[in-house]
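Quick start: what a row looks like.
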Amino acid sequence: ETVFETWMISEFDAQARQQKDLTRQPARPKGWAKVNGLGALDFYNQAVGGPWTLNCGDNCSFFELEATAEDPSVTRIVGRNFHTGEVLSNISNTLGVSSLVSPSDFWSQEYSDFIMIGLGHCCTELGCDTSPVCKDSPDSVALVGYGGAGSDRYPLTALATLGSSKTTDFNDTLRLGVVLTYGPMGVDGPVAYESEDLDVHAYVYVDGAIETFQIEASDDNGERHWSAKKIETSAKTDIPAPAAWTIGPFSW
């Protein structure tokens, strides 16, 4: 049997606090089983313990990929309560999502205002995502959005396609995933912290260049819709792709 433990590491007091096991599965599982990938975490509305000991809220979710031994290419995205392991959401991974990350300052927003950003593939087959961005670029690598657990959260959707050529090498793109910034560290440069113009930007490494997208939300008859607009592509470099990339210590 394999046990997947969950630990909460405090940035405030550096303590490691073990939660209930995320999940257990036999050595040779029958049916669905956890596979490598994702590892995203949301705050599912409200965090607790703030402001200096801010922790993952009572209903925050940890998202993982699961597949079957019969067909490992078919996967689903499962959201489990970070503290108890209870399944809170379960959807088919129709976009082949390989990574997700949460904008830090969306952690305590209302359900409909929250979205995670990641990478996947456009799919035009029956039952797949029907986002307009994929109609002209079937099977392209795409920037995707997903609201996560909760009945009011945004469904898994392709927001934008990446690259401009069918010969683009996306191996490093998928390996590195997405980096998000919020506010003063965005591409618009330093701004005052009290400014209301705190945009969310997604950065993706594509074939030697960095594509930058602005994540935008709009309301249509009371329903929230998300989109991603490419606002910049850096000059292409011949140096090897990085082994990893991140931002820090904070994303805004």
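That is the whole record. The first strand starts at residue 2 and ends at 4. Residues 171-176 form the longest helix (6 residues).
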